[in-house]
Amino acid sequence: MSRFFHGGGSDSETSSSDEEELYSDRDEEERSEEEESSEEEDFSENDSTSSSEDEDKPRKTGANFFIKDEGEVSDESEDEGAPVVVKSAKDKRLEELESTVKLIDNAERINDWTVISAEFDKLNRQIAKIIQSGPTPKIYIKAIADLEDFMNEAIAKQKVSTKKLNASNAKGLNAVKQRIKKNNKDFATEIDKYREDKERYMEADEVEVTRTAPRAAGPSAVRIAATLDTPNLTDEEGFSTVGRHGKTLQYTPESILKHLRIIVESRGKKNTDRQEQIRTMEKLLEVSQTPYQRIRIYLTLIATRFDLTSSSTATHMSSEQWKAAESEFSSLLSVLEANRDHVVVEGAEEWEDDDKQPQVAAGEALRIPGSIVSFVERLDDELTRSLQQIDPHTAEYIERLSDEQSLYTAIARSQFYVEELGKADKTEPKQESINRIVIRRLEHIYFKPSQVVAILEEATWKALPSQLDSAITSRGSASDVPELVQTLCNYLFKHSDGIIRARAMLCQIYFLALHENYYRSRDLMLMSHLSENIANFDVSTQILFNRTLVQIGLCAFRAGLVYEAQNTLSEICGSGRQKELLAQGIILQRYSTVSPEQEKLERQRQLPFHMHINLELLECIYLTSSMFLEVPLMAQTSSSPEMKRRVISKTFRRMLDYNERQVFTGPPENTRDGVIMSAKFLAAGDWKKATELLNSIKIWDLMAQPEKIKTMLAEQIQEEGLRTYLFTYAPFYDTLSISTLANMFELAEKKIISIVSRMISHDELAAALDQVNDAIVFTKGVELSRLQSQIVTLADKSMSLLEANEKTLEQRTQGMANAFQREQGPGARGGRNTGRGGQARGGHRLPGGQQRRPGNQQFSGGALGGAIKA
């Protein structure tokens, strides 16, 4: 119908405009000169002919305007002979597919999952028809792969965000989530190829389309064939690297800084292909010539590898990327060590001129902005995250843990480099960098036995260049590991403060306790006063404090100091939250109020499995120590009503009461049952059966010297069995022969005399030693009458009631009392500062002049109690 309204000369104009549209997308360089000249001549002739014909022919008016002349009819018949573009059904389906993909992309920009769900179903219906007649279009592979990535990002953001989707959007997201995984399984191979190299995958599709185009007839086919026959190729195989806009990329030493500038400016932007940037920098590294160029490329390349984790939904860096980053970091240190006039420091001015290289003046150093220490810390953190995510009971964990050797080598090498910088420039930032890297090195060795650390140090010094040395630690440090730890800690004590100094102190105490130096580790812990200030430190330092405290308790137990072990471990094990306090697991409660952000932080603070303290062994040691103290105490308080309220371990008492309430108790099935059954035999006086049960627990084999531990336990059971027997049967004896006790408990008479003497001196036993007859003479104390026992009980209950009353009064009147005190002043009559006799109100004096705090506040749980609360 459009030709029906054209004038006589409109046909030539239409054909010329069609040719312009057809060839408008082609570059002018690809056209041959002959075709261009012929087109210009044809166009000029047609234009002149049409203009002359319009001038010669009279214009029609009225109804004659719609009547065709003979010339017009002939021209129309010629146009009907021209080729007409007819689209096949396949092309139409592809166009419909492309339009659907565009709708999905638009819906992703506004986060409209309702539209995405509907269009995704439509897309799958369209692709089913296309696959029947040919291969799967790559635009479809790109669409479903990008949609799956976008869906994963949306789900991850939704878990963290407090803002929830509306009902329709959530329904659409769930629908896509259910269908896309099942759908993408059929195209998994193509999706993997696309994700490996997105641009090359799509460019291959464009080349295929371009090569199939010359099959069409007409002058356009000739033009496209001419283009394909004369490509702009630069390499041996006939291909060149082409950018997004069709420009050939050339990597030359002069263009390195420009490429790096483009990469740096694109950091943090959306839809940045960092894999392509990494490949670009690897090619730039091949053509680099100067040390400055290599240093700049390494700094940008390592940072870009770290960005791969932060920009994706992955929680940790992959093993391949981590090893590549570690290798490049070692190469960077090699370049810096070989070129001492190039220095990488924080806060240096950046070189702005990308057209020329900076020149190093004689006797001066070229300062390049960067941070060696930050790279080491990031490598350390990424390895820790990787170990957190891997199942520790698989071979993959062992293989990943082997990378710690290369990491430790990088840490030591970085320390030497930063030391060299510190010698030349003794400023506060340099000293802070040295402290940061020394504490990292210390934290890799403090929890390991000396034999393991010696192997680690020896392998590290072998891997380092022979010319490198350290002023802090010498090459002979591998042979004396305790001296190495002491040297690193002393350096940090002298040159650091705050958290770094506290962590160095805790690492040294942990190492000493691990190597059986109980008294020294205990004295250092007391002199450091960390138990008073630990609540003011960060959570990771509090975790290290808890681990150190537990290790001191374990060391005391191995040394046979049962009372010290139980007293030290009670703060951690008595809380029932050993996993959380030691960062070895998260206890998920049913009605927990923990937000997703807090739970994520808790998981990030978890220690890798190779740093864990065996919680089952810890519980066994705590219960065993409590048994040695509680069983004699229960025997002592059984005949003394005034001592019944005394409890050493509530956890042990609770387990023992639960076991006694059982109607039928079988043989012990686990570690806890073994200790409880042993305690029952010990309380009954059968110390041999108690020893047999306690030594049969298999958990003791995990300790360094299990036979020594079992011998110590047998001796402790004999001694506590003797004390339990004396507490239980003292009221029934007037005298008791020491030789009889020696035969009963298989102890030396001197040992029995020492135990009985200690009990008498501590007022635990009303008796005297008859050294002439080698006997114990018991003295009958005045037994309380029933009325006196009830009076003692009443006094205890009255004291509890008074404390509860004071606590309630303090809570209710605190606000009014403070306001009244501000009005009256501290010295006014009726103020709360003083009471009768000048004694502070709200509490009363305890024996010895100690004042009791109101409301049962006299027990604060110690410094560790604050750490537990935190």
TrEMBL record:
<feature type="compositionally biased region" description="Gly residues">
    <location>
        <begin position="1"/>
        <end position="10"/>
    </location>
</feature>
<comment type="similarity">
    <text>Belongs to the eIF-3 subunit C family.</text>
</comment>
<keyword id="KW-0175">Coiled coil</keyword>
<comment type="function">
    <text>Component of the eukaryotic translation initiation factor 3 (eIF-3) complex, which is involved in protein synthesis of a specialized repertoire of mRNAs and, together with other initiation factors, stimulates binding of mRNA and methionyl-tRNAi to the 40S ribosome. The eIF-3 complex specifically targets and initiates translation of a subset of mRNAs involved in cell proliferation.</text>
</comment>
<dbReference type="InterPro" id="IPR000717">
    <property type="entry name" value="PCI_dom"/>
</dbReference>
<dbReference type="InterPro" id="IPR027516">
    <property type="entry name" value="EIF3C"/>
</dbReference>
<dbReference type="GO" id="GO:0033290">
    <property type="term" value="C:eukaryotic 48S preinitiation complex"/>
</dbReference>
<keyword id="KW-0648">Protein biosynthesis</keyword>
<feature type="coiled-coil region">
    <location>
        <begin position="177"/>
        <end position="204"/>
    </location>
</feature>
<keyword id="KW-0963">Cytoplasm</keyword>
<dbReference type="InterPro" id="IPR008905">
    <property type="entry name" value="EIF3C_N_dom"/>
</dbReference>
<protein>
    <recommendedName>
        <fullName>Eukaryotic translation initiation factor 3 subunit C</fullName>
    </recommendedName>
</protein>
<dbReference type="Pfam" id="PF05470">
    <property type="entry name" value="eIF-3c_N"/>
</dbReference>
<feature type="compositionally biased region" description="Gly residues">
    <location>
        <begin position="827"/>
        <end position="841"/>
    </location>
</feature>
<feature type="region of interest" description="Disordered">
    <location>
        <begin position="1"/>
        <end position="83"/>
    </location>
</feature>
<keyword id="KW-0396">Initiation factor</keyword>
<dbReference type="GO" id="GO:0003743">
    <property type="term" value="F:translation initiation factor activity"/>
</dbReference>
<feature type="domain" description="PCI">
    <location>
        <begin position="609"/>
        <end position="783"/>
    </location>
</feature>
<dbReference type="GO" id="GO:0031369">
    <property type="term" value="F:translation initiation factor binding"/>
</dbReference>
<dbReference type="InterPro" id="IPR036390">
    <property type="entry name" value="WH_DNA-bd_sf"/>
</dbReference>
<feature type="compositionally biased region" description="Low complexity">
    <location>
        <begin position="847"/>
        <end position="858"/>
    </location>
</feature>
<feature type="region of interest" description="Disordered">
    <location>
        <begin position="821"/>
        <end position="870"/>
    </location>
</feature>
<dbReference type="GO" id="GO:0003723">
    <property type="term" value="F:RNA binding"/>
</dbReference>
<dbReference type="InterPro" id="IPR036388">
    <property type="entry name" value="WH-like_DNA-bd_sf"/>
</dbReference>
<dbReference type="Pfam" id="PF01399">
    <property type="entry name" value="PCI"/>
</dbReference>
<dbReference type="GO" id="GO:0016282">
    <property type="term" value="C:eukaryotic 43S preinitiation complex"/>
</dbReference>
<dbReference type="GO" id="GO:0005852">
    <property type="term" value="C:eukaryotic translation initiation factor 3 complex"/>
</dbReference>
<dbReference type="GO" id="GO:0001732">
    <property type="term" value="P:formation of cytoplasmic translation initiation complex"/>
</dbReference>
<comment type="subunit">
    <text>Component of the eukaryotic translation initiation factor 3 (eIF-3) complex.</text>
</comment>
<feature type="compositionally biased region" description="Acidic residues">
    <location>
        <begin position="72"/>
        <end position="81"/>
    </location>
</feature>
<feature type="compositionally biased region" description="Acidic residues">
    <location>
        <begin position="16"/>
        <end position="45"/>
    </location>
</feature>
